[in-house]
Amino acid sequence: MAYKKIYLRICYSVTALIVIISFFWIHVLWFFLFFGPIFLLGFFDMIQKKHAILKNYPVIGHLRYIFEEIRPEIMQYFVETNTEGRPINRIYRSLVYERAKGINDTTPFGTQMEIYKAGYEWIDHSMYAKNKKIERPFPRVIIGGKDCKQPYSASLLNISAMSFGALSDNAVLALNKGAKEGKFAHNTGEGGLSKYHLEPGGDIIWQIGTAYFGCRTEDGNFDEKLFQEKSNYPQVKMIEIKLSQGAKPGHGGILPAIKNTPEIAKIRNIKPHIDVHSPPSHTAFSNPIEFVHFIKKLRDLSGGKPVGFKLCVGKKQEFIDVCKAMVKTGIKPDFITVDGGEGGTGAAPVEFSNSVGFPLRDGLVFVTDTLTGFDLKKDIKVIASGKILSSFHIARVLALGADLCNSARGMMLSLGCIQSLKCNKNTCPTGVATQNQTLVKGLDVEKKAKLVEKFHSNTVFSLLELIAATGVDSHTEIERKHVMRRINMNNVMSFAEVFPELEPGCFINEKNIPHRFAQFFVSD
Predict the structure, then answer these.
(1) Domain count, the chain
(2) Distance between CA 106 and CA 209 in Å, rounded?
(3) Final residue of a structural domain among 48, 63, 79
(4) Whole-model pTM above 0.90?
(5) Contact 484, 492 (CB under 8 A)
(6) Which DSSP symbol is given to 160?
(7) pLDDT tens readout for residues 186-245
(8) What's the rounded Cα separation, in Å, for the pair 475 and 283?
């Protein structure tokens, strides 16, 4: 590495100087021969901008990179001894790092997956795979129905919801700058719209959560005037109403007091230095009809920008009732974001993280099938969110009916997150998930923004390669029949067999309703 060469040159020069001084004072020689290189290494670590770990933890931070160099051997040990799925997370973490850095992301010695274990999935390739050059601009997805006056052309992969407060100011700046350079969208999370989201000029999806941060009255209710003012910022391209998130559905969010600085409190319209709890549900509506009218209100106040909502599927009947309200009123969201129960957060009760909410694939299938049954899918774009880390993850959810994806974990890893699990303690060593400015300064915005952009670009490129391998021309042609799942040692089924598709409109007259949906249409 270039900085190591510079460091060596400095060491040579200082060593020559020490030798000269040692002729007059021998003790100087022995002192600097032992401590000099360490001091110089630490000094250089503090002034370099490439690695946040080294900047925040001079000298000792190199231990992390030593372990990284030998990670294949360590990883292989875990692959052979761990049967709980954790090795897979390490594999994809390495993939994200390599794609963000623009280095070779190929793997030696074949697959590291347990291919004969139930649950293993793969995409089928064609002997007539497409041989076409993949070029920019990458394909886009137009979001906006008939009532939308300002449709948005979205990337296939975007930044999922992460709030300023959970993330540092430098992390938000780097994410948004990366989104601007790569021409993809950045979801604010429920923590409000800050100057760090707006200054770089990247496309913004403004998320409105149950606490209405940034557009709330003093007593915590929705403030139409504040919303109208901020939603009309040119950087704000879409509005997302957060009903629930996969990491803690039905629980609401929490910002620890140690992270609730005066700046964050001002952005959220709350008091500083206190624990901030988001309510588990909204106060602006209390039933499906009120909810769809709230969607219309936000679309009108924002000047006709796309408005949608995010949920982790819970009670199926409630989503079906919302779809019935759409049919009855003619009011439809422009998009729906489906989050999986496997989604992550900086802090959540372990029971909610592990045991509440539908996993992404099951929730996504239910949402897309229900929309199809009510003949709504053609008018509403579906966004998938929940541990999207690789191009196969994207292809898999596209096959299940999603139109595009959001990723939080992948974007955080590309920023330099090392999953130290300090998100809720304000001591994140990389400066990503902390408000401690001593640590935040280690995260260089310009360099990390480039890593975010590279991860996005290389992952979408890989997705298009994967799609070409199946023999189809476009990501819109990926279907459930293209993805296979091992059910057991002797039984393999396609997603089309595991998740049979519905006939469009089959729910409208409540005729020919499949057995698995019949219980939700029993007459009162």
Answers:
(1) 2
(2) 40
(3) 48
(4) no
(5) yes
(6) P
(7) 999 999 999 999 999 999 999 999 999 999 998 889 999 999 999 999 999 999 999 988
(8) 39
